[in-house]
Amino acid sequence: MAEISNNLIAGLLIVAILISIVGLANTLTLMQYPVKYTGAATTGAGKANVTIESALSIKLLRNESWFGSGYPNSQGGGILEIWSNNTAPNWDGTAGTGSFNNGSEGNGTDYNTGTHVYPFVVENNGNDPDTCIKVYADKTAQQFIGGAAQTPEFRFAGKNNESAWGGTNPGCSGSYPDACTSGLVQTWTDMGTSSTTVCTNLNSSQCSDEIRIHFLLGIPEDAAGSKTATVTVAGCNPCGAC
User: Fold this and answer.
1) Distance between CA atoms of 11 and 29, rounded to whole angstroms?
2) Separate counts of helices (H) and strands (E) for the chain
3) 97-118 pLDDT per residue, tens
C-alpha cells in the first residue's frame, strides 16, 4: 500500500512539473506582446490661455500752437478773437472782427495756404479703445493774455482728425468710425487750470485714433507783451481718473 502511494505521488509530481513547463512557455510567449496601461483620455477638448493687458497711452503728434507776433486791430473797438484754423464744425467765424497784424490776418484764412496756426494733434497709441482725453493749462485767461479793456478769452474745441471716411494714414480705406466715438467737445469751451474733457472715448484703431485740439484767444485792446501758456493733455480711463 505504501509502494502504491509512492508511485502515485511520483506520477503527480511529474504531471505538476509538466504543467509548470507549459505555463512558463505560455508566459514567455505572452511577454512578446506586453499589455500597456494608460490613464489618458481618448477623446476631449483642451484649452489655450493668453492674457492681453490693456495699455493706455497717448502721443502728441503736434504740440505747439504759435500765433506769432503782432498787434490787435479790432475794427470798431472791442476784443479781437483769433483761433487756429479748420476749427470745430459749429464755429461760424463771425465772432470777433478785425485782424491780428502779423501777416496771417487773424489766422482765419484757408487751412491749406500756410497762413494759419496749427492745432494740437492727439493720437491714441495704446490699445485702450475708450481712452478719455482731457486738457488743462498752467494759467487762466487773465494770467495768460492780460488786459483790462475787455475780458480776455482762452478757449479750446475738439475735432476728429480721422473720421468715418477712412482716416489720413496710408493704407486706410473703407469705413471707420470717427476717432472720438463719443463725448467730443466741439464748442468753444473755456480753458481752465483744472482738467476738462475734450473726448470721452478716443478710439485705438490705427486708422481712426487721432483728434485735434484747437485754441481761440480773445485779446483785449490794451493787452501787450509776450504771452505763453503751457497746455497739458492727459489720457485716462475712466474720465474721472485724470
Assistant:
1) 27
2) 2, 12
3) 455 655 444 444 444 444 567 7
Give the residue numbers spanning the domain of 191: 58-241
Q: Supply the pTM of this predicted model.
A: 0.71
Into how many domains does the chain fold?
Answer: 2
b/e 99-138 (16+ beta carbons within 10 angstroms → b):
bbeeebebbbeeeeeebbbbbbbbbbbbebbbbbbbbbbe
| CA diameter of the chain | 154
Cis upstream peptide for 177 (omega within 30°): no
Same domain, 64 and 167: yes
Residue 52 lies in a domain: no
CB atoms near residue 53 (< 10 Å)? 5
What is the identity of the amino acid at 213? I
For 25-61, write each residue's pLDDT tens digit.
554 444 455 555 555 666 667 777 777 777 899 999 9
Interatomic CA distance for residues 96 and 38, integer angstroms: 86
- Which one, of 174, 216, 173, 208, lies nearest residue 86 by Cα? 216
- Considering the domain architecture, whether residues 112 and 205 belong to the same structural domain is answered as yes
